[in-house]
Every structure is written in structure tokens, then in C-alpha cells.
Design goal:
mainly beta; 2 helices; rod-shaped
């Protein structure tokens, strides 16, 4: 289904109250949202259980007082799982049997406001919880993941957790627990790139804890496999030999070829630092120098002016008038004849 919402006591359950075994629950949904409880605090959620009915029901339906059946299995496949406001996904046994198994495959899981994922038994062995989270597992505001034996000589359960990131707020008392009372503590294995806000401790505290303790038996084991990324794996080894700079300089541009050197720019700078840039207009000198040779050749083909080998002109110093009245300039001074006076 695209979306599954269980609110205010809504529940999906497979349970037994006698010698028979509870069935299996398999849920495939893109998004699962579980929130709230009934007025008498019965949680919303998904449950596989072996539960003890009250005496009136046992007598009415001839149910034996001892609970010998097994808890069912719960498997959930989803992209996003949100459990909040007291909602639960759980397997539980109220007798001496084992708590059963719970498997969740999700891209992301959010537990908030007391949301729980748990596998518990009254006096048998704690159940098994397997969480495969592609991205983030976030625990907020007193939420928890528990696999516990609440009494008797049963051992704590096992928690197998794989997530890219496991995050909690240190002061919000969100816990991952595999505790026992009379038996031994369970086992917690976490594989993640980072665990934030949770601290391994011997006992539960008001802070956010990871514990696998026992009141009377031996404490369990906690393995945190932090898959830290090594930044040195992505480094590229650079050569240690110095480079001769003279070998990196190209030869000079040959004259009268198609080589060119171009500098582009705005053609000026702003009047002051606060002025906006004005467009992207640039000036570029891209003249074709190969045409210069053609121009020189064309100029050499033009007709050249001719020169006369005439005698050098000199300043006139004298003049005279011939018989027909024509004035003739001369290079030498010519004295005038004075008229005779009788």
C-alpha cells in the first residue's frame, strides 16, 4: 500500500492466547505512520503476541491458564517509518516462551515522543530485532529500541542494527536496550558510519544509553562497528620532483605569421567600488597581419612620379624690355641707359 496510518489505538495484530502459535505479519508500504494510544493507554501499532487472557475469557472459551504457544513474526518493508506519541511495533510473550522476531527494512526510521520498537518476554528469552536502515535512524524524546526479558531466568534478546547514521539527543533519554533480570544480558551489534548522542553504559540512566545489562546474571555484549570514512583514500599523490620553469615557456611568436596575442576586458573600470558593472562589451584587436604584405606589394606597383633634369632656378636681378615691349627678367643686373640731354 502507498501509505499505512495507525492512530489512537489502531492496531494490526497476530496473537495467540493458548497452545497454538501466532501467525506471521508482513507489511509492505511506502510510508507507515503510527501514533497515539487509546484512552486506557493501549498503544497503536503492529503486534505479534502470545497474550494471557483474563480469567473470564479463559473460562468462557475453555482456554488453558498456561500460555504455551509461540509468538508470531513481524516483517515490515517501507521507505519511511514513523512511530510517535506512544505508538509501538512489537513482538511479545506474556508467558515463559520466547518473545519472537521482528525485522524492519526501511530507508529511514523516526521514533519520537515515546515511540517504541520492542521484543519482550515475561520470563522467557528476549526476542530478536533486526533493523536494516539505508539512511537515518533517529530517536527522540524518550523513544526506545528494546529486546528484554522482564523477569524469570530468561536472557536478554539480540539487536542487529545497520544504518548509515544513528542519531539521538543525549539528554532526551532515548535508549537501545537488551537487558535481563535473572538471566544474562543480550547482544547488541550496530554497524553505522556514525553514532551520535548515544553512549554505552552499564546501566540505564536519564541520558540516552546503549545497555545490555542484567540484574542477577552476566552483562551482555555491545559491538559498535563505526564505518568511518578515511579521507586519505581519496587523496591524489602529487609528484615530488620540481619542474624546470624554462621548459614550460613557449618560443617567441614568429614574425608575419598567424600568431596573435589577445587581451580582452571591459574597456575601463567603474568610477567607484560601489558602482555596478556595465555590460560585457570588450575591445579586441583581431586585425589580420597577413594582409600587410599584400599592401606593401600593392604600393610598390603604383606609378612613381617623374623628375625633370632642368637647370636650377635663380632669383631675377634685372630686367629689360625688348623692342616689342615684352619684359624679360635676367639673372644679372642690366643698367638702364639714361636719355641724353642736350
Amino acid at each position: 500500500t502507498p501509505q499505512l496510518r495507525l492512530l489512537d489505538g489502531g492496531i494490526i495484530s497476530s496473537s495467540t492466547g493458548a497452545s497454538g502459535d501466532a501467525g506471521k505479519i508482513n507489511i509492505n508500504a511506502a510510508e507507515i505512520f503510527i501514533s497515539g494510544t487509546t484512552p486506557d493507554q493501549f498503544p497503536s501499532g503492529v503486534e505479534g503476541s502470545a497474550a494471557v487472557f483474563n480469567a473470564d475469557i479463559q473460562q468462557a472459551f475453555f482456554i488453558p491458564p498456561e500460555l504455551t504457544g509461540s509468538t508470531g513474526e513481524v516483517t515490515i518493508n517501507t521507505d519511511q517509518l514513523t512511530i510517535q506519541d506512544g505508538g509501538q511495533v512489537r513482538v511479545r510473550h506474556q508467558g515463559i516462551g520466547d518473545a519472537g522476531s521482528l525485522t524492519i527494512n526501511a530507508d529511514a526510521i523516526l521514533l519520537a515522543q515515546g515511540g517504541q520498537i520492542n521484543a519482550t518476554t515475561a520470563s522467557g528469552a528476549g526476542g530478536g530485532i533486526v533493523l536494516n536502515v539505508e539512511k537515518l535512524l533517529l530517536l527522540r524524546q524518550g523513544s526506545s529500541i528494546t529486546a528484554e526479558a522482564l523477569g524469570g531466568s530468561g536472557n536478554g534478546g539480540n539487536i542487529e542494527l545497520k544504518a548509515q547514521q544513528v542519531v539521538a539527543i543525549p539528554t532526551e533519554n532515548s535508549d537501545i536496550v537488551a537487558n535481563a533480570v535473572g538471566g544474562n544480558g543480550g547482544n547488541i551489534n550496530i554497524n553505522s558510519e556514525g553514532i551520535f548522542g548515544l553512549q554505552v553504559r552499564e546501566q540505564l540512566t536519564p541520558l540516552s544509553d546503549i545497555t545490555a545489562s542484567s540484574q542477577s546474571g552476566i552483562s551482555g555484549t555491545i559491538n559498535l562497528n563505526i564505518l568511518n570514512f578515511n579521507p586519505s583514500q581519496s587523496l591524489v599523490e602529487l609528484p615530488s620532483n620540481l619542474v624546470d620553469a624554462s621548459e614550460q615557456i613557449t618560443a617567441d611568436c614568429s614574425a608575419k605569421t598567424s600568431n596573435r596575442f589577445v587581451v580582452t576586458g571591459r574597456g575601463g573600470i567603474p568610477d567607484n567600488p560601489t558602482e555596478y558593472l556595465r555590460g560585457n562589451a570588450v575591445w579586441q584587436d583581431t586585425r589580420n597581419l597577413s594582409r600587410v604584405n599584400q599592401s606593401v606589394e600593392s604600393i610598390s606597383n603604383y606609378p612613381q612620379p617623374t623628375t625633370n633634369n632642368q637647370s636650377q632656378l635663380v632669383e631675377a636681378k634685372g630686367w629689360f624690355m625688348d623692342e616689342d615691349g615684352t619684359v624679360i627678367l635676367t639673372a644679372e643686373y642690366v643698367p638702364k641707359e639714361l636719355p641724353r640731354v642736350c
